[in-house]
Each structure stands twice: as structure tokens, then as C-alpha cells.
Batch of 2 targets.
Target 1
Amino acid sequence: MMSLVSLSLICFFLVPIQAQSTITVDLAKKYQTMDGFGTSETFQRANQMRALSPELQRYSLDLLFNRTSGAGLSILRNGIGSSPDSSADHMVTIQPQNPGGPNAAPKYVWDGNDNSQVWVSTEAANTYGVQTFYANAWSAPGYMKTNNNDANGGSLCGVPGSSCSSGDWRQAYANYLVQYITYYKELGVDISHLGFLNEPGLTTSYASMRSSGRQAADFIAILRPTLDRANYSNVKITCCDSEGWNQQAGMMGDLKGVEANGALGTVTAHSYTSQPGSPINSKLPVWQTENADLQGPWTAAWYSNNGAGEGLLWATKIYDTIVRANATAYLYWIGVQGGATNSKMIRISDDKKSVIPSKRLWAMANWSRFVRPGAQRVATSGGPSEARVSAFENVDGTVSVQVIQTGTASGAVTVKMGGNTFTIKEASAWITDNTRDVGELEVEATNDGGVKTTVPGRSMVTFVLKPEAQN
Ligand SMILES: *[C@@H]1O[C@H](CO)[C@@H](O)[C@H](O)[C@H]1NC(C)=O
Ligand SMILES: *[C@@H]1O[C@H](CO)[C@@H](O)[C@H](O)[C@H]1NC(C)=O
Ligand SMILES: *[C@@H]1O[C@H](CO)[C@@H](O)[C@H](O)[C@H]1NC(C)=O
Ligand SMILES: *[C@@H]1O[C@H](CO)[C@@H](O)[C@H](O)[C@H]1NC(C)=O
């Protein structure tokens, strides 16, 4: 539920106002339905969180998932391990040993911990009500692959074009992925989305498995009935977490068949090699499942010189992905970890005695707290020049309007409901900028039925409105 308790009922003083710009929200014109916002604690990052003091553990979890004091993230992406051990930052597999071939009885091993991803997941589900869990394998275990190694590329034995003396491992890999879901189910966490690839165009020194679109479609045709037989017909198969938006778009032709027959549930893409600028050609929900500034030195700033880690820039990246590229979910790479880069939104200090949120987190929060799962994006017109404007109708009837002012101009902005069929009963506005950290703004009623506040330069302001239909 939207935190309506914190909404301030506005006083309808009829003060004449010279509105400098007006945004009109059109609830009749609807776009995609949102699935949510999220992040990951994979590659043993969850272990770093769990090694913190109990107070800092709670603070970290609140920053990620709490809907009143944190970002209220609604999606957690977990890594399904493929490595034989947990050395370095390996994600350990649930079947380290080859059971003796693709048709042998499996020899699964479950430590109930999964590099602390179980802890983060059960906290997310039980304490904060998160319902969307994306379990995503980077690779199959090495013995199932052409190169006999879970790292360094190679492909799944049995897909078209593969050649393996060990046989066809496709059904064994599908069973293995289903077993991972079952381990979580037994702990009370329902995995909602399942991915079997990560960056399938990349061969690298950590877990990686190559796949073309055709090979992915071939495996999806096996995985879907395997899930259904195990009573997981509600689990959506994702594909393919390509490194960039354009690469994923390029795989869609080969995925048309599994899209049309319902086997594929959600299209997933990262933003490293190409950023989302236009929709991927699919009727399915499309998620942006991984992006981060991997290189830049740690910054917690909102705006200083438009550097790669700054909050305002991330607010606009989220805008482009949702409004221009039609995504229904946005995930930053890592939530909480140590180290001096921007690969995460929240940094564990080197002495491990503090946890430091960046404005990237608050940029995300200004979306994720107000655009809840199930919200539909709706049309807007007007707005200040240089601003990016978006609007969403939540399931509970509240409407949130985001105004990202990337320019320096400050000005009054009025938000109105279009069509004269709705009046605004309650409203609040929230600001993110360089200085404000819990920025609730005053809103005023305008004499034409709108609500108004000042949007300063280089800021993001979110209006939350409760419209009521007029009789
Ligand atoms: C979230 O934060 C608020 C405010 O600090 C706190 O009262 C609440 O207990 C926290 N936890 C949850 C699950 O909301
Ligand atoms: C399948 O799931 C349904 C709904 O969760 C449950 O009622 C049923 O017992 C399950 N069947 C099996 C075979 O697990
Ligand atoms: C946007 O995505 C939705 C699914 O979330 C799809 O139905 C719709 O066709 C897409 N629109 C465009 C313009 O691609
Ligand atoms: C928006 O961002 C600011 C940080 O600049 C943060 O303090 C504020 O809580 C965020 N708003 C919400 C509602 O998340």
C-alpha cells in the first residue's frame, strides 16, 4: 500500500498563482504495467551485508526494502551458482559433482544459505513483503557444458550447434533449475522469475555461458514444460540478460516462437554495451535487469559535474528506460557492498563500521516508493523545459508524477488532471537534490484545480496525488 498516512491533506487556499508551467496527467491514455524496481546481492555480496553488526544489517535492509525509510525495492535478483566451490566471489552450485551423466540420478547439495542470499531473500519476503524474486543462473555447471568449465564461455550440451561427448544435458539443467526453486520454496520464498543465462554474448573468466537466440529458444521449449510438471506454472521464464539493450533486441527474432506460445514470460536486458533508448520489439514485459557505473570512484553526490555515478544522472537513466524504452522494471547491479567503485548503490565503509547510501539509491527511491508493482504508466503533456516528466496510476488509485529537472532553471510547476473528470483530493510532493535528504515539499492548490510546488534546477520532484472521479 502507498503510505497515504504520510500524505498531507492540503488546504485549499484559493491564492491566485502565476503558474510557470503546467503538467496535465491523462489517466485515459495508458502504457505499460510496472513490475517494480530492484537490485541484487549476488556474487557473495550478501555475505558482506550479513557480516555487519545487527544494527547495520537492519539499516542496510531498511535502505533497500523499507517503504518509509528506504527505497522500498520490490524485486530481488539472486544468482543461481554454477561454481564448484565458494572461493573468491564464486557462486557455488547446488550440484558440484557430475552425478555420472545427464541421465544419472542427481546429487544435489544444499547448504540452506546460498552465500547469504537465503537470508536477504527471507528478510525481503517476510519483513518487507517483497513478492518478486528473480533467480538467475550465469551458467550451467561445467560438466554440463561444451568447455567443461562453468567459466570462460562454452555452451550448454545439447542445444543446436553444440558438440559434447558427455551427452545432452538440457533436461538435466532444466531439472536442476527447478530444484533450486524448490529449495527456496521450502524456506518460504516463492521464486517468481527464472533465468538460465547471463550476458550470453560474453566469454569471461567468471561464470559465463554463451547462447544464441536460437539456442535459448531451444532450451526454453524444454524448461517450460519441466516447470509446469513441477507445479511451477506461475514461474515466468526470462531471457536473456544480454549485455546491452541492442544485443537483446537482436535476439528477439529467434525468440518469437517461444513468445507466441507463452513459454517465454519476460524479456530481460542489461545496459552496459548499449543503453535503453527505444522499446524492444515484444508484447512481453521487458526488464532492465542490470546496470551500474562499474569504473568510477565512489560518489554519493546528487549532482556535481554530471559524473557517471551521480544520482541525477541515474534518475534520467531510469526515466529513459521506462518512458522511452517501455521497460516494466529497473534493477541496479548491486545494492550493498564494500569497495571504492559505484558498482553498488550503498557502500560498506572500509572499517565496516558504517553503511553509506548514495544518491543513486535515492534516485531509485524517488521512483520505487511511488511507482508500485502493478502501476500503469499514463500520459502527460506539458512541463518545464529541459525536464523529463512521467506519471503512473498505482493500483490503490494514487497517481505519482515525476519531474526530473536536469537544467538549472527553477520554477513553479502545476500538476492537473486532464479531462475534467477527476479532482485532486490529497497531494504531497517530495524532493531529491544535493542538500535535501527527506525532502517533503509544500504543495498549494491552484485556482484551476491543480496543485503546485517549486521544482528547483537539478532536482527530481515526485508529486503524489489522490484523484477522485467527479460526479
Ligand atoms: C521501516 O522504517 C520505519 C521508519 O523508520 C520503521 O518504523 C519500520 O519498522 C521499518 N520496517 C518496516 C518493515 O517497515
Ligand atoms: C500444486 O500447487 C497447488 C497450488 O499451490 C497446490 O494446491 C497443489 O497441491 C500442488 N500440487 C503438487 C503436486 O505439488
Ligand atoms: C510496451 O510493453 C508492453 C508490455 O509491457 C507491450 O504490451 C507494448 O506493446 C509495448 N509497447 C511498445 C510501444 O513497444
Ligand atoms: C528522494 O531522494 C532523497 C535524497 O535526496 C531522499 O532523502 C528522499 O527520501 C527520497 N524520497 C523518497 C520518498 O524516497
Note: Helices lie at 45-50, 54-65, 117-126, 170-186, 213-229, 245-260, 311-324, 359-368.
Target 2
Amino acid sequence: MSKQFSTQNKQDYGFTTRAIHQGQEACPSTGSLITPIYQTSTFVQDELGKNKGYQYARSHNPTRQALEECLASLEGARFGLAAASGLAAVSIVLDLLQAGDHVVVGEDVYGGVYRLFERVLRKFNLNFTYIDASNLEAVENAITPETKLVWIESPTNPLLKLADIRAIAGICQRRRIRLCVDNTFATPYFQRPLELGADIVVHSTTKYLSGHSDIIGGAIICDDEELFSELKFFQNASGAVPGPFDCFLALRGVKTLALRLREHERNATAIARYLENHSQVEKVYFPGLPSHPQFDLAKSQMAGFGGVVAFVVKGGLEAARTVVNNTSLFQLAESLGGVKSLICHPATMTHAPIPKEVREPLGIVDGLIRLSVGIEESKDLLADLEFVLSLCSNQTQQESQSQVPVAAQ
Ligand SMILES: *Cc1c(COP(=O)(O)O)cnc(C)c1O
């Protein structure tokens, strides 16, 4: 396959250099510095049986190909596929399986992944067992002779639990089972699962990779050529491809991934430390805190800890409501990974379908709040949180005062 943009391998260059250059040579016919948006459905062929490497845009598009090549390089791999959404990417990976196959899945995977597995793929006689992926014994014990795939996220949403990717890859290699890691939260800047032994990485490029909360997109990355051809075949057969403009935006976002992630992490660390010392906060979840139970694992498999922080505010649902309804910079919204800070309440938003009796023992309590920390000035973000937490402490004080006469009666 010839390519519009030469594919000179830049694997020797550093991460940010590859993010800016890999797959993104200047256009040989016009000199366009930036990879253009090839907004076309089809490509004119030179003569019967002869074309320039492109025929129909579901199969190949130069803007998409530039993004695919760049993302593959950032994960330290040879092959990438850009998909219409993160879930489209997940769905294409699951196309590798046959009816009767079994998948071992981390119990706190993204809700949409759980829904796809349980409500769609079970109809085709695929079977799923959900385990605590931070427990290696549980992973090992869930494997059956039918298991063809292990599916994990690390860190997870919203409690930022880690799975030991190296150790799980070892288990999978011994049993000849494929390991797929959803690397959306960490991004290749902070964690490269293929280098730790995984076979496939998927992303929701909607989040940090595009980074500006302006597209829906996904990606699949692997280093095995045969596996890649299968995945490419399934994507072309079912058709969940991204449009060229979304690929352009993702490619633009990726160029500043490293810069953004350093800022996301710096702000997230400052906020996690601040919250940990706040009297109105019960608990903080952030893998970069020494108090995180898997801090050592985080340091051994991640180069940084990301930009998502979760915490439990004292005072349950009422206090959580006060926090999420009164921030001025943190916007109340689902999703994560953009330059603008977001705040959400998992118990009533992302995890609302899970019954209270099931979610509470997992840690998704009414007071839990998740922050996607953006790259605004950290002092402004801290002031925003300080203000809303002061509203909560006023609330608690008023409650305890109003309780005095009640108790005296
Ligand atoms: C958002 C997300 C997805 C789904 O991606 P979409 O782009 O919304 O389809 C999958 N996994 C994780 C970890 C996510 O955060």
C-alpha cells in the first residue's frame, strides 16, 4: 500500500517528537505542513487494477492513516486502527472471538463496555466473568479452557484501582490467552501496556488523546501483523470508522499530549494533596498519593499518574450535591481528559444503573465525587474546591447546631 505521507520510521525519536512528526510528513504534492482533512468518500483510480493506495474511504483515508500511524508509534507498536468511538474500538476487538468463547473482565471496567458485553455480545453466546483485576489469583481462577481474552483497565474509573499489567500478561502468555488493556485513563505518555506484555491496547480518543472535549473517537493498537489484519478486516466489514475531520482534531490534540498530561498531573497532584488534608474530606483516590494502596505498583508500571482524582466528601448525598452544584470552574459533566476541568457524581450519573447495595461495597458511595482535572491555573482550581467545601462545612455546622434542641427535647 503506497501512502500519501511517507512512513519513515521515527521510532528512535522521543515521544513528543513522534507525536508531532510520525505519520505526518509534509504533503509531497502541495507542501502542506499539516496533514490535510481528506474529506472524500472515494479515490479516482489511475487505470483498472492501479490506484494510489486509496480506493474507498471506509477502508483507507490519508488523514485517518496519519493518526493511526502516530498513535501506534506512541504506544511503541507498528499498527494502529482509528475507530468511530472508544466503544466501536472495543466492539472490533471482540469481533476476534467465536460463539462459545469466554472473556475474563475487570469488574470495574467502563460502564459502556459492561453494557456492550452483557446486553449485546451475550446474545451471540460470548461469556464474561467479572473479577477484581487487582487480585492476580482472581484473574487466574476465572480462566477456563474457553477463555480467549482477558480485558482490563488500569487505572479504573472512578476509584483509580490498578491492575498489575506485567503479571497479568505473564498469566495470559502461559495460557496463550490474549490480553487487551484499555489505556484511556493513563495514555501512552504515562503507561505503555504493550511494552508490559499486553497484546492489544484500546483507547477512547474522546478523552486525553484528542484532549479538548470536542470529538468522539477510538483506537486499537497492536504489534502483531496477523492480529492487525484480522482487526482491520473486521473494522472494514462492519464499518465503524471515524470521519476525517475528527481524525484531524485527534491528530492535532495528540501533538500536545505530553505537555497537557504534565499539566493535568501537576494540577491533579496538587488537588489530591489538598483534599487529603481537608477536614471535610473522608477519602481521596489518586494513584500518585503515597497513601494509595497500590502506589508502588503505580510507580513501577506508570511514568505518571494521570489527571483524574476521586474523593469522598463528608455528609453523603447532600454534601456531594452542594459540591457539584456550586463549583464555577469545574463543570458538571460526564467524560474526562479535556483541558477544561469537569466534576461528576458517579452514584447518580455514570454508575446510576448499579443498585445501591451493589455499588456501595465497591466504594461508589453517595459522597463520592470524581474530578477530571484540567489544565487551568492550579490556584484557581484549588480556590474553586475550597469554596464549595466551605459550603459543606457550613452545612454540617448548621446541622449539628439545629440538632442540639432536637436532642434536648
Ligand atoms: C469513555 C471511555 C470509553 C468509551 O469511549 P467512547 O469514546 O465514549 O465510546 C471506554 N473506556 C474508557 C476507559 C472510557 O473512559
Note: Residues 7-254 form a domain with the Aspartate Aminotransferase; domain 2 fold (CATH 3.40.640.10).
